[in-house]
C-alpha cells in the first residue's frame, strides 16, 4: 500500500525545493549581463516570506512518509535557526560578491540547497533520511567552499573539506549499517524502542562511535575538527559563516535527537565520554586560537571552543542541558553572524583578513568596530550580551548534573577566550591604524547590523521568552 | 514625599544617558558631558535620598521592587536596600559624581569614554541594589569589563598589560564565584535566585555542612580576587596605576568593595557553619594582605603605585573584619568600605590632578609642590592622614571598630594589623615629604592649582564626607547596624 503523505508537514521543504527550481529557471531566463543582483534580491524576499510561513507552523506536529519525516517542536525551533541564519548569510553573500568577479547566481542556489538539507536534518526520523539530508547539506558546502576558483586557499579548503567530509559520510553509513544489523531497523522510533529494552552491545557501541564521528565532524569537536581552521580561513566568508552557525546547529540538532531522544536510556554510559570530549574540545580550540594571526582562522578555533561549551550541555544529558544547547545556538547565531558580517565588510574595503590590518579599525569605522566589539564580548560571555546567558544556562545544566569539574574547566576556558578576544579588541581600539581611509557602510547594511546587535543585546537582556522557547523545543521532542 | 520605583530610577537614569550618548554624534562634546554629568548627579542625589529615607528602626529590606524575569530559573529583577546597601550606594553616588567631574580632563574619544564609564557606574549600582543573586552577578560583570577598554585606550604607562591583567583576574574570580553560586542554587533545590526567599529557607533548613564547606571557600576566593585577597592582589596596583584617573577612583573606591559586599551578603549569612570553619584562614590571609602590601608600598616611588598597594593593604582590615563575624567587626567593615572608598577616590583624584600637569608621578622627580598647588597639597595631606587612621577622619572609627571586633578571636593577627597602621603612616608621610614638601623642583614652576569652584568641588565633596563621618559616625552607623544585626544573628 502506498503510504499517505501529509503534504502540510513537508510544506516548508516543498516550498524551498520549488524556490530552487524557480530560481534556476529565472537564472536561465535572465539576460546574462543583468546588472542587478536579481537572484539575490528574489532569494532574500522569498526567504522572508518563508519565515512568515515558518512562524505559522508553530503548532504543527506529526509524522509522514511512514514515519521517516517528523515535525515537532524541536524541528520547528531548529528550522527557525536555519532560516534566520540564512537571512544574514544572504546579506553577506550580496556584499561579498560585489567585490569579486565571476558568477554568483549559482552560489545562491547552493545556499538554498544547503538550507533544504539543514531543514531536512532537523526533521528526519530515519537514519537513511538523515544520511541523505546530511549529504545534501555537505555536498553543497563542498562546492561553495571551493567556489573562488582563482583563489588557491579556497581550492585547498574545498579539497580538505571534501576528503574529510567524504570520510565522515563513510563513517556515518558504516555506523548506520552496524546499528541496522543489531536493531533491524533504521527508523528512530524502532531503535528507541530497542534501546529502552536492551543494554548496549559492542556492535551497537561501534556503530554509535562511527555515527558520533560523523556528527562530530559537523559540530567541529575534537578529534574531528582538523578541517576547521583551514576551511574557515580558505572558504568564502559567507560559507565560513554558514559553517560556523548553520552546519554546527544542524550537527547539534542531530546530537539532541540521538542522545536526548533515541539513546536517552543509555546516557549513563555516554556522559563521561561526552564530558571528556567537551573538556578537550574547548581547551584545544581556545588555546590554539591565542596564536592566530588571521581573523577567520581565529574564528575557526574559537568555533571549536564553542563546540566544546555546547558539548557540556550534551554531557549534562538533562532537559536543561538540551535547552541550554538550543539557547546557546540561538545566541551564537546572532553573535557569530554579526562578527562575520563585519569581516566581510572589512574585507571588501581592505582586501584582507589578517588581524594586523584590523589595527585602528575604530578610527576608520566606529560602527564596524563597535559591532565587532559587541560580538567578541558576547562570544566571551560578558553580560548583558546573549553569550553570557548562553554560558550561564550551560553551566547551570552542567552543575545540575554534578559535573562541577567540567564547569571549572569551562571557567578556565572563559578566561582564556576572553584573553584572545580582548587582543582583537586591543587591535581595533588601541592600536594606531596603518591606513586611515574610512570604511563606508551602506544604509541597508547598517540596518542588518542593527538587527544583529538588537538580537545580541535584546536576547541577552530579555532572556526569559527565548529560554522558554528553547525549553519547549526540547520538551515537545517526538520520535 | 515618596518617589515610586526609586531604586529603578537610580539605574534607569544612567542607562537612558548611555542610550542617548549612542545616538549623539561624537563631536557634540558639550552635550555628551552635560548629559552624563546630569544623569550621574541625579543618580547620586537619589542614592542620598534613599540613604536619608531609609527607616533604620524598622530595618530589613526596603524600597523593594520585584518583576519576574526568567521564570524557568526563578530569576527576577528584584531590587531593594537594607542598611548596608544604603551606605554603599551613597559611597557610589559620591565617588561616581566626583569621578565624572574629574573626567573633564579627558580630551580624546570623549563619547566612548563616557559610555564605558557610565556602563561601569550602572553595573556597580545594579550590583549593590540587586536582591537577586543572578542579577548581582550580571551587574557585577557589566561593571568589571568596560575597565579593559577604559584602561587600554585612555590609560598611561603599561596600559595594555595593566588592563589585560585586571580584566582577566576579575573575570577568573567572577567565573569561580559563578560556579559556586550555581552550585549553591542547585543544592538549595528551591529553584530561585531570590536572596530573601533563600534566606528565609535557610533560617529553618541550613545547608549540609559538607556542601557549605566547599562552596564557601570558592565564593570567598572568587569574590576575594575582586577584593585583592592575598595572593591575588597583583592586578590591582598595576591596574590602578595605568588607568585614567576617574577609573582608578571608581575601581579602587567602589568596585573593589563589591567583593567584600558579596562575601558579607552571600557567603557569611547563607553558610554560617562553613564561615566559622574557614574564617581563621581568612584572618591569616588578611594579615598577609596588610603586611605584604604595606611593605611593598614602602618601597614604591610612583604615587599611584603607593596608593594602589596601600589600598590592597587596607583591604586586609576588611577581610579581618569579615573574619571576626561579630556586630562590631562587621559594622566596622561596612564603615571602612565607605571610608576607604572615599579616601581612595580622593587620593586618586588628587594624584590625577598632579600628574595631568607634571606627566610624571615619580617621587624622585616631584618635590615642593605645595608652593605651586597649596589646595591640592592640603587635600593630599588630609587624605594621607585619613589613610593613616588619624582620629577625626572616618577611617579611624572604622579601623578601631574592626580591631576591637577582631581582638576577641584573633589576638596575634590584631597586633600585626596594628603594625600595618604604623607602616601606612610611614609611607604616607614619606610621600607627602617627597612630593609636596622640600625645595620646589624648577621644572614645576608653571604648575597651577585647582582654581575654579568646579575644579575644587570633587575634592571638597569627598573630603567633607570623610570628616563629617569621622566626627559623627553615628550618621551612617545607625543604618549599618540595622543591616548588620540580622546577619550577626544568623551567624550565632
Sequence-ordered SSE layout with sheet pairings:
The complex is a heterodimer of chains A (479) and B (492).
Chain A: H1 11-29, H2 38-56, E1 62-64, E2 69-71, H3 73-98, H4 105-123, H5 127-145, H6 152-183, H7 188-197, H8 202-219, H9 228-234, H10 237-262, H11 267-289, H12 295-316, H13 319-350, H14 361-364, H15 366-380, H16 386-400, H17 404-429, H18 443-461, H19 463-475
Antiparallel strand pairs in A: 1-2
Helix pairs in contact in A: 1-2, 1-4, 2-3, 3-4, 3-10, 3-13, 3-19, 4-5, 4-10, 5-6, 5-10, 6-8, 6-9, 8-10, 9-10, 9-12, 10-12, 10-13, 11-12, 11-17, 12-13, 12-16, 12-17, 13-15, 13-16, 13-18, 13-19, 15-17, 16-17, 16-18
Chain B: H1 6-23, H2 29-53, E1 62-70, E2 75-81, H3 83-102, H4 110-129, H5 133-144, H6 146-154, H7 159-188, H8 195-204, H9 209-226, H10 235-242, H11 245-255, H12 257-270, H13 272-299, H14 303-324, H15 327-358, H16 374-387, H17 394-407, H18 411-436, H19 453-471, H20 474-491
Antiparallel strand pairs in B: 1-2
Helix pairs in contact in B: 1-2, 1-4, 2-3, 2-4, 3-4, 3-11, 3-15, 3-19, 3-20, 4-5, 4-6, 4-11, 5-7, 6-7, 7-9, 7-10, 9-12, 9-13, 10-11, 10-14, 11-15, 12-15, 12-20, 13-14, 13-18, 14-15, 14-17, 14-18, 15-16, 15-17, 15-19, 15-20, 16-18, 16-19, 17-19
3D structure, described in words:
- The complex is a heterodimer of chains A (479) and B (492).
- Helices cover 76% and strands 1% of the residues of chain A.
- Chain A has 479 residues and is mainly α.
- Chain A has one domain (11-475).
- Chain A has a two-stranded antiparallel sheet.
- Chain B has one domain.
- Chain B contains 20 helices and two strands.
- Chain B has helices spanning 6-23, 29-53, 83-102, 110-129, 133-144, 146-154, 159-188, 195-204, 209-226, 235-242, 245-255, 257-270, 272-299, 303-324, 327-358, 374-387, 394-407, 411-436, 453-471, 474-491, and strands at residues 62-70, 75-81.
- In chain B, 61% of the residues are buried.
- The mean pLDDT of chain B is 91.
- The A-B interface holds A 362, 366, 373, 377, 382-384, 388, 392-393, 395-396, 399-400, 404, 407-408, 411-412, 414-415, 418-419, 422, 425-426, 429-430, 463-464, 467-468, 471 and B 26, 68-73, 112, 134, 138-139, 141-142, 145, 148-149, 152-153, 160, 164, 167-168, 171-172, 175-176, 178-179, 182-183, 185-186.
